[in-house]
Design brief:
The protein is α+β, with helices and mostly antiparallel strands. The protein has 2 domains: 105 residues, D-amino Acid Aminotransferase, Chain A, domain 1 (2-Layer Sandwich); 152 residues, D-amino Acid Aminotransferase, Chain A, domain 2, CATH 3.20.10. It is built from 6 helices and 15 strands. It is globular, with a radius of gyration of 19 Å.
Length: 274
């Protein structure tokens, strides 16, 4: 079955569509937001919309009219594409916006919930290219260059991601995901002024941790040793949910609180579609 993509409100078989984006010409001039869907609806659409608009306003980047208002028209168009592809259970939706043009693609997933990766991931720390820290470091468009180098690093190691450091050699993020570590009953995550990517799931995870009566620290810079001395570590994004890290380099981690936070996120997903 052909995979359909949505371009400016029209459905096209992906194999037949030729776009500047796909040839890389949009690399410096588009916003990409990755979202999760279930039953043809987008989880946390208001949060995603707020993030997109904030970056656009801050960088003086115009957005297509499909995002006007509460973006309900955008959600209906995405639902039409998901239905055409028969991605009824769920999908990872990637939406690209470049001034008047917009493109949406999707990949099916097997569960509407955030499945916990009980086997965990073993990853390394990428130290060759450090992420600059400036006003727009926390946004996806300005993170792509470093992410590209980081992806080549972990592909060569046959891993799924890696830890990225900022220009001060502080622990910053992973590719398209935020980093969280647990020490005792304290949850720590790199502060926004570290240059870390801002994913909409960040605040939701911090709120869940507080409900679990964990101490939350989001204003303290983290160094490599803070990570390697932690009890637990995980990555998170709105599209992928939580990725438990079984280990970083030779350090191995537990997952007690990580599992509880994952359960809390699934409760939020259920509530978001009601």
């Amino acid at each position: 079955m052909a995979e359909y993509v949505l371009y400016n409100g029209n459905l096209y078989p992906r194999s037949e569509l030729s776009l500047p984006l796909m040839s890389g010409l949009w690399e410096s001039s588009y916003i990409c937001e990755r979202m999760r869907s279930a039953e043809n609806r987008l989880y946390f659409l208001r949060d995603h919309l707020k993030q997109i608009r904030f970056y656009a306003e801050y960088s003086e980047f115009s957005l297509p009219s499909i995002l006007d208002g509460d973006a309900s028209r955008f959600e209906r168009e995405v639902a039409r594409m998901l239905n055409k592809n028969k991605y009824f259970k769920g999908a990872i939706v990637s939406a690209y916006f470049s001034h008047d043009d917009w493109l949406v693609t999707a990949q099916p997933i097997s569960s509407r919930k955030f499945e916990f990766n009980s086997d965990g991931e073993l990853i390394d720390i990428f130290e060759k290219v450090l992420k600059p820290v400036h006003l727009l470091s926390s946004f996806e468009p300005l993170s792509r260059i470093v992410w590209g180098y980081a992806q080549r690093f972990y592909f060569k190691k046959q891993q799924q991601n890696c830890i990225i450091l900022n220009e001060e050699r502080k622990v910053c993020e992973a590719v398209r995901q935020n980093l969280f570590v647990v020490k005792g009953k304290k949850l720590l995550t790199p502060p926004m002024n570290s240059g870390c990517y801002h994913d909409i799931l960040r605040e939701k995870i911090l709120s869940i941790a507080r409900v679990l009566e964990m101490e939350v620290e989001q204003n303290q810079m983290l160094n490599i040793q803070d990570l390697l001395r932690a009890d637990e570590a995980f990555l998170a994004s709105a599209a992928d949910g939580i990725t438990w890290l079984k280990g970083v380099r030779a350090r191995r981690f537990y997952n007690r609180f990580t599992k509880q936070i994952n359960d809390g996120l699934n409760d939020l997903l259920t509530g978001d579609l009601q």
